Amino acid sequence: MEVGKDHDLIASANEAIHLKLVSKGDEVLEKSESFHPEFTHQLFGDNEAIFGYKDLEIKLYYGSSSLLTYFGFTYSQKIDPSTSDGVKADDIIQILSDVLPQGFYTNQDEYMRVLEKEESNFKPFGEIINSYSLDDQTFEIRKANVDIPGFKAYHERLRTFLIWYIETASFIDDDDEKWTFYLLYHKRKDHNAFRYDIIGYMTSYNYYAYPDKIRSRISQIIILPPYQRNGHGAKLLESYYSLAEKDDNILDITAEDPSENFISLRDFVDCRRCAKLPAYSDQNLHDGFNENMANEARKKLKIHKKQARRVYEILRLKATDRSNAKEYLAYKSYVKKRLSQPFKKEEKDLLKLQKFLKPEEYNAAIIQANSQDKVQLLNDSYKAIEESYLSIIEKLALY
Ligand SMILES: CC(C)(COP(=O)(O)OP(=O)(O)OC[C@H]1O[C@@H](n2cnc3c(N)ncnc32)[C@H](O)[C@@H]1OP(=O)(O)O)[C@@H](O)C(=O)NCCC(=O)NCCS
């Protein structure tokens, strides 16, 4: 076999991996309702490719409640080192073993035998902090921590989804009791008992905030793909927020390295919350962000000042009549003034530099600073920001 010519031997890891949530043995045999990861680069490199197999199919199935894990793979052909100058196929078992939970099953029959028992014996973790119904189905949000017996092993199964759906995911140190876990379950009746299928979860970490408070930082949030875009992410975040609002020890809430998806979810939820505050009422929105807004958002909703201002800009745009040229211009100038702050700082730094640089060095620095078209840059940034704000405003009108 000639290596490098046969592209059939290179599989897209994202396509080859089939994830599925199963609660009955026979569901393990079918591929229907499986879904694919969005990211596999942490395991299979930047190209997200698996080398050495033809028609590769990897099954990674999880018990829908217990998350009991099965891992198996099939292929029609595997590269043979003896006929390919010693080139070997990627060691899929070795690579996946790094992220899979301990005790995963590789024997399908055995997995099918154990699955149903594990599923029916499963008890949800943590205390209930909220419940809601959607389309006649009941959902429960529970708060848990690492002290709960059996939780660490369960979390080890659950966290693998982060690798598949968050580009920069990393596993947290779950020996640290400052982590809190918020688990979202679908509570459904099965004969005479209830089953708790996991829908998603989020984690937060308690940092010290001077002088005697806590800063709660959201670290990861995920809703499993079959359940996304139904409002569950918003419910999970809102439930965590309403608990934090009542907690006098919490100064404010921040987020760790927020992704685009998370920013959009948080903006939507925070706009809904802030819109109820007197400081953010429509008549107060046209004169700029003020301390009163920052204070109300922090004291009542634990929203950090930077986010409180962002929410202000979204709600002000919502209250702006964009067909009124004067009103719209006032809005644009307001946002652009904030966006131009870094340029102003750059100009100030240059003035300071003038004292220390030789005239020719100073001139070179000025040329460099002007080389980019700042006005264009400012306009482009404004356009991108307005677009993202408008998509939140659209959603606010819908839900
Ligand atoms: C980001 C994430 C947590 C959002 O969860 P979700 O349950 O899909 O979010 P929601 O359903 O509440 O809102 C998402 C969309 O559903 C729509 N939606 C449907 N019903 C809704 C409702 N009742 N309320 C709010 N939004 C609703 C909204 O239009 C929203 O639109 P958008 O995707 O354009 O923003 C989820 O997509 C996810 O897990 N992504 C992968 C992991 C990730 O990126 N995590 C963030 C980084 S840590």
UniProtKB/TrEMBL annotation:
GO cellular-component term (any): nucleus
Gene Ontology biological process terms, A to Z: DNA repair; subtelomeric heterochromatin formation
Keywords, in A-Z order: Acyltransferase, DNA damage, DNA repair, Nucleus, Transferase
Site positions per UniProt: Interaction with histone H4 N-terminus: 179
Sequence ranges assigned to domain N-acetyltransferase in this UniProt record: 174-249
Histone acetyl transferase HAT1 N-terminal domain boundaries: 10-167
Catalytic EC class: transferase
Catalytic reaction annotation: L-lysyl-[protein] + acetyl-CoA = N(6)-acetyl-L-lysyl-[protein] + CoA + H(+)
EC nos: 2.3.1.48
Record: active site: 256
Name of the protein in its database record: Histone acetyltransferase type B catalytic subunit
InterPro entries: Acyl_CoA_acyltransferase, GNAT_dom, HAT1_C, Hat1_N, Hat1_N_sf, Hist_AcTrfase_B-typ_cat-su, Hist_AcTrfase_HAT1_C
Species of the source: Trichoplax adhaerens (Trichoplax reptans)
Compartments reported by the entry: Nucleus
Region named Interaction with histone H4 N-terminus: 46-48, 205-207
GO molecular function: histone binding; histone H4 acetyltransferase activity
SUPFAM superfamilies documented for this protein: Acyl-CoA N-acyltransferases (Nat) (SSF55729)
Family classification: Belongs to the HAT1 family.
Record-annotated Histone acetyltransferase type B catalytic subunit C-terminal domain positions: 266-317
